[in-house]
Structure formats: structure tokens, C-alpha cells
């Protein structure tokens, strides 16, 4: 049987006690994408949205979201992040903006949720800023790509 760390012996949700864990360097990388029309992607590429630089705003939103992760997800520990990076790649062939979020911390718990939150909120921000042109956009494939550090060690997503 799988041991879910956020469920106690009585089956109730609880915050995991990390007090006895040792601090290690931890990194998490998440990714996702926003699928959109060629017209919308062209406007993004040319920075032609009336609201301003969509990707610059989405980058800041993703960074802020990672910093506020514990306020959004009830059982996450507040972390003093060492670094948060949010980057974008325009994929004209797929009609998508690919998003990557990378978080680093020296701590007792991982930063997977922070990286996933950074990507998710960056994607939502792109949607918000572009929805006047393209309401059919799709936020897709948000997932953890890799994690480093901690008791469970390193993990990398295996791609087919």
C-alpha cells in the first residue's frame, strides 16, 4: 500500500512535519504549454497586444505564484526560495507557447509544487491577456519534468 504523507493514521489530511529532515539543495523543473491560433501566436511573437508584453507579465506572474504557493495549496510548506525562473518558447509548428518553470531552494522539503504553480499561473496569465483575441486557447500538459535533492533523490521524466 502506498503511504500518502499528507494523510495521518486516522485518514485525516495534515501538514507533514519536516522538522527532523536535513536541509539539502533542491531543484524542480515543470513545464506546460498554451495552445492557440496562428493569429494569436503571431501577435504574441510581434508583441502586438494592446495590454502590453504578454510574456513579460506572465513571467512575473509565474515568479509571484511560486513565491505564494503555500498560500494557494493548503498543505504546502512556506519556502524561502533561492531562485525562480520562468521561460517561454514559441512553437509555431504546434501553435503553442511552451513554458518552463525552475525553482531552487536550500531546505527540508521539495519545490515541485512551486515549479508547477509557476507554470500554471504563467499559462493562466497568457490566457487572460490573449483571451480577447482567442477564447479557444487550451492550457495543456502541465507536469513535473525533474526534481533534484531530498531523501527520495533525483527524478527525471522519461519521454517516449
Please write out the topology.
Layout: E1 24-35, H1 38-45, H2 54-67, H3 69-72, E2 83-91, E3 96-107, H4 112-130, E4 138-148, E5 155-156
**H/E element order:** EHHHEEHEE
**Unreliable stretches:** none
What is the overall number of helices? Answer: 4
The first-to-last residue Cα distance is: 28 Å
**Main sheet attributes: strand count, strand direction, barrel closure:** 5 strands, antiparallel
- What is the C-alpha radius of gyration, as a whole number of Å? 17 Å
Number of strands: 5
The shape is elongated
Classify the beta-strand content into a percent band.
25-35%
Strand order of the largest sheet: 2-3-1-4-5
Structural class: alpha+beta
Q: What would the average pLDDT be, to the nearest integer?
A: 91
**Share of helix among residues?**
25-40%
